[in-house]
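Example record for the data management plan.
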Amino acid sequence: MSFRFHFGRPQRLAALVLLLFLGAALFTIGRAPLTESDYRYALCGREMWEKPSPALGYFTTCGNMQGDGTAAYRAAALPLTLYVQVLRFQDWRERRADAAKPPGERTYVANSVQGSVYDLRHQISGLQYLLRVPFALAAMGLGASLWWVCRRQFGNVAGFFALCLYCVLPPVLASATTPNNDILAAWGLFATIYTALGIAHAMYGPAEKWRPRIVLFTVGLGVTLCAHVLAGVVALCFAALFMLYVAERRRTLVLPLLIGSGLGALCIVFASYAFRLAPFFYVFTAGAARFTVQTAAAKLFFSDFRNLPLTATLALCLVLYFAVRRSRYFGNTAPLLVALALLPMQTTQLVTWPLLWAVPFLLTFAAGIFADALETRQRKLYLLLGGAVIATETLLAVTVVPSLHQ
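Corresponding structural encoding:
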C-alpha cells in the first residue's frame, strides 16, 4: 500500500498557522519562569527514563503515577535526559582522551551532570524550553489533526476556521506552554476516535486499507491511556459506539478489533511503566478513572471573557443545528455527543481538565455547522461572522499571552 501526501497550498497555509502558534508558545515559554511543577515533571520523568524504582515499592519518588499517567512526565524529561546523556558522553570522551596523555600533561576537570534538575538549572541554558516545548509540539499535533479531520469532512474553509480558532484560544495556549497530561490526553482522545471512524469506513474496502489504521488506533489508544486512564476509557467507549454505528455490515469484526487494540494499548501502558508489574497493576486498583458529573467548571469556562467568542459561536451553532434539519447528520452529531459527555466530567482522584479534551470536538462541531451555513444564501454574512470571531479571539489572545503563567 502506498501513502501519498500532497503538500499543496492548503497544507502550506495550515503549516504557516501552526508555526505562528508555535511562535506564540515559544514566546510564552521564554517569559514564564520555571515552577515547582516543572521541576517535579522533569525529576520524575528522568527517573522513569534513567532509573525506575528508586524507592522500594514505588515506581518513582513521585509515587506510582496512577492518577495522572506517565506520558507527560516522560515527554517533559525526554529532551533533558537526551541532553544530559550527550553531556555525559562528551565528558567520558574528554576523560578517556586525557587519560591517554602523560601524567604531567593531563588537564581534565570533571564536569558532573549527575545532579537533580534543580541543581542543573544554571548549567543547562534554555532549560524551560527543554521541559515545555514537547507540549507545544503536542498542541501543534492536535491542531494539525483537527484541521485534517475538519478539512476532510467539511472542506478547506471550515478546516481553517477550526484551526485558526483553535490556535488563538487562551486555554489551548496555556496548556501548550507547561507540562501537563491534559493536552496529550486531548490529542490522543481526538485522534483515537476519528481513527476508529476511519477504520469503520475503510472496512467496506480491501483489508490492506484499514489494517495500518488499526495499528495507528492501537498506538493512539495506548498513548491516551498513558496520559490519563479516564480519557482512554472515553476514547474506547465512543470508538466502539461509532464503529458499530458506521460499520453496519461488518459489525462482527468490530469487537475482535477492539479487543486486540485494547490489549495492544495495555502493552504500551505496561511499557510506559518500564515493564514493572507492581505500578502497572496499580493503574487498575487506584480508581484513576473515577469521575463525577458537575456543571460548575463548564459554566466557569464559557462565562470567562477570554472564551466569549467561542461561547457565542457555539451558541449560534446550536441554534442552527436544531433549526436547520440538514445540519443534523452524523458528521456534526458525533463530535457534539463526545463534547457533551466530556463537559460535565470532573475527576476525583487528581485535578485534570476534561474541558480541554472537549475543545477539539466543539471546534469540529462548529466547523461542520459553519460549512453548512456557507452553502446558504447568507454565505458572505457567515464568512464575516467567522472572520470576526477569529479576529476577536486573536485580540484577546494577544492581551493574555504575555501573562498566561505570571
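Summary line stored alongside the record: The chain has a mean pLDDT of 86.
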